[in-house]
Amino acid sequence: MPKVPKGKVGMYVYIDKKLYEELRALVKAKYPYLRGGLSREVEAALWYWVRVHTQKHTNAVMNLLKEEPKVYKVFQQVKDYFRQKYKFIPYQVTL
C-alpha cells in the first residue's frame, strides 16, 4: 500500500480505457519528471467541475443532473409503444 499524503484520500473510479490512456499521455508530456502529476491534474479537474456546478447564479441541482437516467428513457419508449399500439397512456406505478 502506498503512503497516503496528509489531507488526501484515495479514490478508485472506472473510466473509459481510451480516455485513461490519453490522459496519462498528456500528463506525462506536461510533467515528464514529476511524480503525482496524474493526481494533480485529476484533482484540478474535479475542483473545476465542482466550481462550475455550484456557482451562485446557476441552479446547482439542475447542472448536476443534465442527462436523463437510462431507466427514464426506456420508460418513455414503453409509454410511446403503448400510446401507438393501444391508444393508451400508461402511468408509472410505484410498488
The termini sit apart by: 45 Å
Total helical segments: 4
The quaternary state of the protein chains shown equals single chain
How large, in whole angstroms, is the Cα Rg? 22 Å
- Output the structural class: mainly alpha
Please report which band the strand proportion falls in: under 5%, 5-15%, 15-25%, 25-35%, 35-45% or over 45%.
under 5%
**Average predicted local confidence, pLDDT:** 79
Number of structurally distinct domains: 1
Number of strands: 0
Low-confidence stretches: none
Q: Mind summarizing the main beta sheet? A: none
Outline type: elongated
Series of H and E elements: HHHH
Helicity level? 55-70%
Structure description:
By secondary structure, this protein is mainly α. It has one domain. 56% of the residues lie in helices and 0% in strands. It is built from 4 helices and no strands. The chain has helices spanning 17-30, 37-53, 60-64, 70-86. The protein is elongated and about 65 Å long. The termini are far apart. The model has no long low-confidence stretch (mean pLDDT 79).
